[in-house]
Amino acid sequence: MAFVKLEKQGHVGVITIDRPEALNALNSQVLTDLEAVIDEVEGDGEIYVAILTGAGRSFVAGADIGEMKGFSSVDGKKFGVHGGSVFLKLENMSKPVIAAVNGFALGGGCELSMACDIRLASEKAKFGQPEVGITPGFGGTQRLPRIVGVSKAMELILTAKVIGAAEAKSIGLVSEVYPPEELMPKAMEMAEAICANAQIAVCESKRCIRMGMQTDIQTGSAFEAEAFGVCCGTEDKNEGMGAFLEKRAEKHFQNR
Fold this sequence. Notes:
It is a single chain. By secondary structure, this protein is of the alpha/beta class. The chain is about 50% helix and about 15% strand. The chain contains eleven helices and ten strands. Helix 1 packs parallel to helix 3 (about 75-90), helix 4 (about 110-115) packs across helix 5 and helix 9 (about 200-210) packs antiparallel against helix 10 (about 215-230).
């Protein structure tokens, strides 16, 4: 039984963590299934944008404590490396990923949302790193300070505080908060807006942002200049600039 589902809606791939009886907790099988779906999305030329969400009332409630309780140090490191590598693969996908956080995003769930490019939340969403007797293991100590700053990340991790969607927005952890019934339609609306653009430029922009955030501004600017040059050699550049000069709203991007 696969715990991660993929549904294609036009050029959008909707990825759903589907283990609702355990609030979508991450165990080894869920991580393996997620990696397989990430690879499928990356390899599908018809998918331009992915939306990641959870089945039922939880996004991902955390890593599976039932599986972890018996871990030795070696087991724990192996599990952390496994989850960390899957989340890095998600983060480094060429295609944008929108997290539609519908409920609990705690521990590994918060870390999973942070590996996505854009986070949207339901008013019912809860975020935090409330690890029980351990550190975050899937990138929480690294991504959270990069997103919300060192002081706020220290506060959330060291106190194990759980926050609601409104506070998550106020600290920059999520971009927007919606009523539960509007979350997926709004995520789809955003995904379709991204799909309407020139995909070479979309992917190159994501790559520049991701790489630039890990280096100094001079190196990041060099990445950007290279990407700008790549895009200037595309047919989509001609179409986009032609539409601007001709004052026409409609564009026909071919992604080449």
